[in-house]
Amino acid sequence: MSETVISTNELHIRGLGKRYASTQAEGGELQVLQDIDLHVPAGRFVSIVGASGCGKSTLLRLVLGLDDQYEGRIELDGQAIAGTGPERGIVFQDHRLFPWLNVEQNIAVGLRNAALTPAEKRERVAEHVALVGLQGFEHSWPHQISGGMAQRVAIARGLVNRPRVLLLDEPFGALDALTRARLQNELQRIWQAERITMLLVTHDVEEAVFLADQVVVMQPHPGRIRRIVDVDLPHPRHRSDPRFIALRDDVLSDFLEPGALPMEAPPVPVGPGGWRLAW
Known about the structure:
CATH architecture of the domain at 11-87 and 163-254: 3-Layer(aba) Sandwich
Shape: globular
Keywords: ATP-binding, Cell membrane, Membrane, Nucleotide-binding, Transport
InterPro entries: AAA+_ATPase (IPR003593), ABC_transporter-like_ATP-bd (IPR003439), ABC_transporter-like_CS (IPR017871), ABC_transporter_ATP-bind (IPR050166), P-loop_NTPase (IPR027417)
Structural class: alpha/beta
Pfam families: ABC_tran
Radius of gyration: 19 Å
Low-confidence stretches: 1-6, 263-279
GO molecular function: ATP binding; ATP hydrolysis activity
Helix content: 25-40%
Number of helices: 7
Family: Belongs to the ABC transporter superfamily.
Number of strands: 10
Order of helices and strands: EEEHEEEHHHEHEHEEH
Distance between the termini: 49 Å
Strand content: 15-25%
Largest sheet: 6 strands, mixed
């Protein structure tokens, strides 16, 4: 009898390093990431915080599979990641909705290559419209909805293919404070409902502590992990909880106290043809 293989959403990053060519760096290369070791158990929510230029977004790009030129290994369920794949979804700071598609059509883009019948796709889209609370706006165009609603569409699009890992790159960074707080609550609710593995990059320490099981604090020049803080607080969380405030202030101390991590960005590497590279 053949043995049943059970897949998980466990993510392992081992000895990860990334360099960019740079005329401004000694030796012609800029080390952006160095010796990143991170284990994200299945179904966990992990936030990554750090100063500008510490390689947070570069790390997410590598996990997504947009760049295969790096040192070390990235594994999902014990298998090395090679290129992009439907098992990894992403939500960016800019919702990147197609203006010529309505809400449900934008969400359906995430199912473009899914092996589902048209009826199954419609059912899946409707399920995720409800998940993000957009019933009644299925036929609205991107210009007719608010920025917060557009980010809900982006989250639904990232989840509709039922990825094993959802990557979030500053998903609420462009929103006003009130909308941001509401969507943090929504994301917490969605994660509890879906229980998939989530990896969030943010510069907002309070957001990181509010959402995550663990907060990874990175330091720059080159980007590496300074420490990992466990957030052992029940959900739903409350920002006025003294335990929450203590954890938030503990993480903030890495950036605010004398001798804290530098906040300035390092020199921007220059690629072929003079293009400046961002991470």
